[in-house]
Task: structure prediction
Amino acid sequence: MTEPSGRPERRQRQMAARLEQILDAAAHLFADRGFHRTTTKDIAEAADVAEGTLYNYFETKNDLLFAILARLSESELPQAGLVPGAARPAQVSAGDARQHFASLLDLRREYVNENSVMLQAILSELLANTELRQRYSNQLLEPTLIGLEKELTLRIKLGQLYDLDVPATARVLTSLWIGLFILQLLEQPQNQPDWERLAQATIHIVFDGIAPETTMPETSGKPGQ
Amino acid sequence: MTEPSGRPERRQRQMAARLEQILDAAAHLFADRGFHRTTTKDIAEAADVAEGTLYNYFETKNDLLFAILARLSESELPQAGLVPGAARPAQVSAGDARQHFASLLDLRREYVNENSVMLQAILSELLANTELRQRYSNQLLEPTLIGLEKELTLRIKLGQLYDLDVPATARVLTSLWIGLFILQLLEQPQNQPDWERLAQATIHIVFDGIAPETTMPETSGKPGQ
Amino acid sequence: MTEPSGRPERRQRQMAARLEQILDAAAHLFADRGFHRTTTKDIAEAADVAEGTLYNYFETKNDLLFAILARLSESELPQAGLVPGAARPAQVSAGDARQHFASLLDLRREYVNENSVMLQAILSELLANTELRQRYSNQLLEPTLIGLEKELTLRIKLGQLYDLDVPATARVLTSLWIGLFILQLLEQPQNQPDWERLAQATIHIVFDGIAPETTMPETSGKPGQ
Amino acid sequence: MTEPSGRPERRQRQMAARLEQILDAAAHLFADRGFHRTTTKDIAEAADVAEGTLYNYFETKNDLLFAILARLSESELPQAGLVPGAARPAQVSAGDARQHFASLLDLRREYVNENSVMLQAILSELLANTELRQRYSNQLLEPTLIGLEKELTLRIKLGQLYDLDVPATARVLTSLWIGLFILQLLEQPQNQPDWERLAQATIHIVFDGIAPETTMPETSGKPGQ
DNA sequence: AATGAATGAGGGTTCATTCAT
DNA sequence: CATGAATGAACCCTCATTCAT
Result:
């Protein structure tokens, strides 16, 4: 009864903000202790609302998880395209392939950094929850895979890449993304090489492989560690 | 003359079998619906024992999870060595590197296949459970990483590999394993290329990279699939 | 401007009432069948609330017991002082000692009557539960003992009592209280003399002893403390 | 099948010993942590037998408690008579009353000391368990009360005691015993006066009362029952 | 008679959800 | 729409008792 019920905009903005608040709080808690160990009470407290309020925004605790996942799907990467370069094929050049891949790696890295909380929250549950997996995992994977496949196809056509098995390669590369992300979560931070070195090693592998081009004489410089 | 020191053989065997029974049942259920959605009642029913019986074998439900992880750690791969070839350096030759890597991939694949239920059961919880992660994740990762690092170092010395950043590379390769495993869990089976193609693509990437060797004129032959 | 700082009065009153409800129900059940034979379900039913509601008021079933004990400690007797007469020493006279003791006995009797349910509930657990005993038994005993000691000291100074061993006597008298209470709990009601007779006999013993004074002159040394 | 089944005596002795073992273990544990907090497993371990063995000796855990109580009833005091002096009335003399009471107090003290573990174990349960109370409490109280009543009656006849209300007085005195016992259990040991002082104070109260005989010559009518 | 693993009913407690305010 | 106490199903675990060995 503060307002004479007019000004619905403010309300709407308030509610939108509140929703963000809740999603953020939930994502952080989920990432920190997992979905099941997080109680609605925890979430309410972290979001500074009453427990009942959660249920004005989400039907169930599960829906909260779905909303987090949905938000991830809407997030930068998929839209912007996993492969921004693809939009500007003109610029593509031989030298670019490597550089492009590098910047792509950083792009992903950025995305992951920004969303790591959400990703971690979701990933665990995706692995554990068959139903969730069936319903949603492709929403996360498909854009990446399809984008990557397109990109690969294009560059193959341009002669920048071997004529490789596109679907398989896309998956191998995606596995690399995923694996790098998970490894960073799993390994004790003090044991991890910093990201720069990982990125270098990744690029080196993906482009040069790990073995001297034996097959051929290979003079190529070796990237010392 | 303290005691005959051993309880009846039969009993012991029965109990060992029962323990397997329980671990298997639990692992399957954990993999299927996740740790938290699996109740002790579920496990007992699946293992065909009374609920109380579980607690003759494990102190808590959590310990059951730990036991699964422990069993994974004792499982083939780490012991046999991640890198069987390392034991026979004599045989190592240039051509071997690639072949060796391939068989190593298959070895891992086998390991993963045999333990996929357990791995899946654990992995989700590792991501969600900080405590579990701190206590145990290294038990799974370290052997792999260390073995791989040794292997890489050796082969570098033999001139089979570039002089690459060993720790970083070991992690990138491990990320690949992990990523491939997870991707297979996440993607709908019908969308997945079969394993053979994935393995090929992986080897191709790791050894040849995806770009023609060149860094230079696009001329190089493409290793078509 | 932090908060209006108070939740609706009504709510608060309701909750306070509910808390009483629960405490009373629990005390009765504890007294009737003992702490351990009373289930939280029993308590909830007797208090006409859901089982979960108990846990909005008490962290554990044990805390319920502690709360009962705490309430006993806050109850009339200790505060009002075990020895109301002590406040009015002026009135104290020789004849008063006996009369005072009698009214004191009745006072205690009243207290015990009003709290017998709680006392019984607690006492059994005090005997059985070392931890509870260490934490709380003195809260019940000390006030009684100290009050009694003060009273005795005072009256000795006034020449109303022998120069007796104050701490020991205080304990003997307190033992009498306790013993009378317990005996009434233990003995079949139909076998018990009514309270009036017990009180009379008590007073008689405490003041006159059971033997005619006879035997000897008072020469018998008084056991100073 | 060691023995040809002859020599049942040894067996019997063994079993009797085992039974003692179990009763002792149980009583100690009950006294230490209470009946309900003691598990059959605890008892078995303490008695150094298997859990199942308990059930060859007692039908239920409750029966174990009953057996402890039964053993208490058979114990010295009741048999020897609460009032050994009563058997030798010849010796009774005026001076003896006091002395006799003193030795009686010590007798009880001894009894309590020897059985305190059992008594504590039982008492708590007697207070908590209505059924147990109804079935057995009189087994403990009655002998004491009846013996005491007889004693009092006798000594009254002998003119050693006032013509007091025998049943009431018997109960008051018994309350004293009980109270002293319980107080010693409840109060922190370091706060307790030693037993000698308590005994002195008790005798003093019971015989001389706490007030100087002031009030008067013995003319005061004796409060007959 | 002794053993100790198996049993499963029942316990205390948690927590997603509801609903009166 | 916000609140937070109330709810009760469901959980993990305990433990007295049974029974095959």
